[in-house]
Amino acid sequence: MLHLEHSWTPNVDRLAADGVMLTQHIAAASVCTPSRAAFLTGRYPLRSGMVSSNGYRVLQWTGVSGGLPPNETTFAKILKDKGYATGLIGKWHLGLNCESSDDYCHHPLSHGFDHFYGMPFSMMGDCEPGEMSEKRAGLEHKLNVCSHVMALAAFTLTAGKLTRLVAGSWTLVICSAIVALLCLTTSYFMGALIVHADCFLMRNHAITEQPMSLQRTTALILKEVSSFVKRNKQGPFLLFVSFLHVHTPLITTENFRGRSPHGLYGDNTEEMDWMVGQILDTLDTEGLTNSTLVYFTSDHGGSLEAQFGNNQYGGWNGIYKGGKGMGGWEGGIRVPGILRWPGVLPAGRLIHEPTSLMDVFPTVVQLGGGQVPHDRVIDGRDLLPLLLGTAQHSEHEFLMHYCESFLHAARWHQRNRGAVWKVHYVTPMFHPDGASACYGRGVCPCFGDKVAHHDPPLLFDLSRDPSEAHALTPDTESSFHQVMERITKAVEDHRRTLSPVPLQLDMPDNIWKPWLQPCCGRFPLCWCDREADP
């Protein structure tokens, strides 16, 4: 037995000890944009169109037209109508504009939040100059290929003209040379263009810092949280704090760098834990602890492929197989779930029933005195009876696990046996052979020749095999065919509840459009620092 005197996350541990911990808490997607859409709406992201079918897993730029559709209802919108002050501080990544750079159709303020401060996009490796890149490297490669091809075309045409093997004017030669030069120049400045296009801060509709100064962002976010709480403490409020931490490029202030034995990821995690402590202390100071429900979670599992050299930048998923981007494996979708409400929820309670991030929607709506919408399918279930102990089992008998618009897996909670069965219809092929992830690419694919289709599906009993290490067969599990038949029927029933909607993450809604690019100067000279203003 190993006894540890030091906790690396004392504040999250304190939150768990004082609250209820959900040990089988499941995200509705294994990447951020669709997972966050499901969290806010209580619906599988496929229902709102917040998925893709062509490999664009998340929103790719701030200046795209895709995003959380205006006709979707978030729990913030319902609570705002019930008189709550509603705020979002931190990451959004659910779109901004539809037709112009200031229509704000997807903005947090259009989805029920009356205050927003943070990144409209997402923290990513390209926000800090260095080796980690999530899209700069790929774009630079394409532009370099373009410049070489066009330069070769210009040289070939010039040679043809000089030797009189090619007739016509010099216009084509000049155009080819200009395109080659443009591709080369754009490639050279690509890093700076991405930083200005995506890595900036907003307060409500106004850009305050473009690009953002990463080393002071943590302090600015905590200051904004404290200000919001103090401003609204006399009435009911909903505050969604969406950390920029534990995500590449792992921006960590000097006070925390080099502290953790687990490298930069550990440093970053410790700083996030410290931020949790600062927020809890603010509630204590303002006398709000006993009247505030606090919920702590993540939108997906750790990114196993986020490596550079011998350093792991994407975290680890413990005993669970797979990680971020893998639609079915537990490592990509099983996340922390902690709820604390002193005097209401029993401290130290562990709940091993299947629950979902989508459950927050009906739980919060009903606690706030609102009504869960009846004009649409809501996939979340009210958590309160389970949290209070008045219900023994989760209301989720089945949960579906999508990768983009493709169903990869499904789980069945067979309550009378206490079993949680999970079937995998599609799984990614790990690379290289024998690896535990798709190394060499950003995330594992959802479709194509790099995924395996299973017929019959793979079957696991998570209650006995949470690591999904031993697939069951008719020879090793007497209930194999019964389980398969029951889950097959549940999937068919689920599919009958789906309606076709435009997919927000597909092209053309998920490509950069310059007329949608937020800019605090005259485009393309987007630069300002209003955070430094007195």
Furnish the topology, listing elements before pairings.
Elements: H1 10-18, E1 20-26, H2 32-41, H3 45-48, H4 75-81, E2 85-91, E3 115-119, H5 136-162, H6 171-198, E4 201-203, E5 206-210, H7 214-232, E6 237-242, H8 263-285, E7 294-297, E8 307-308, E9 311-312, H9 330-333, E10 334-335, E11 337-340, E12 349-356, H10 360-367, H11 384-388, E13 398-403, E14 406-414, E15 419-428, E16 451-461, H12 480-496, E17 528-529
Parallel strand pairs: 1-12, 2-3, 2-6
Antiparallel strand pairs: 1-10, 1-11, 3-4, 4-5, 5-17, 7-11, 8-9, 13-14, 14-15, 15-16
Tell me what the structure shows:
By secondary structure, the protein is α+β, with helices and mostly antiparallel strands. Among the domains are: 28-124 and 199-300 and 335-396 and 504-533, 3-Layer(aba) Sandwich (Alkaline Phosphatase, subunit A), CATH 3.40.720.10; 136-194. It has helices spanning 10-18, 32-41, 45-48, 75-81, 136-162, 171-198, 214-232, 263-285, 330-333, 360-367, 384-388, 480-496; strands spanning 20-26, 85-91, 115-119, 201-203, 206-210, 237-242, 294-297, 307-308, 311-312, 334-335, 337-340, 349-356, 398-403, 406-414, 419-428, 451-461, 528-529. The strands form 4 sheets. It has a 6-stranded mixed beta sheet with strand order 6-2-3-4-5-17, with helices on both faces. Strands 1, 7, 10, 11 and 12 form a 5-stranded mixed beta sheet that branches. A 4-stranded antiparallel beta sheet has the order 13-14-15-16, with helices on one face. A hairpin with a 2-residue loop joins strand 13 and strand 14. The radius of gyration is 25 Å and the shape is globular. 44% of the residues are buried.
